[in-house]
Amino acid sequence: MNDAKFIIRYSLGDSFLEKLAGKTKVLLFFSSIILMMASFDLRIILPLFILNFLFFKSVYQEIKILKFIIIFTLVMNILNFILFYLVNPTTGTELSQTFTLLFKFNDYYVITYETVIYFITRIFKIIGTLMISLWFILSITPSELASGIYGCKIPYKYATMVSLGLRYIPDIYRDFNAIKESMQMRGIELDPKKASLFKRIIANTKILIPLLLVSFERIELIASAMDLRGYGQLDERSYYSDKDLTKTDQKVIYFAYFQLLCAVVYIVLNMFNVVPKLWVL
Amino acid sequence: MKNNKNITQQIVAIAIGSALFAVLMNYGGISIYTNTKLTTAYIIPVIIGAFFGPIPAALVGFIGNFLADTIGGWGYWFDWSFGNLFCALFIGSLNLYGVRIREGIYNIKHAIIFSIIAVLGNAVSFGLITPFFTKIIHGGELVITLAQAQVAVLSNSVVILIVGNIVLFALARRYKKQNNLVEE
Question: What is the CATH number of the domain that holds B14?
Answer without folding.
Answer: 1.10.1760.20
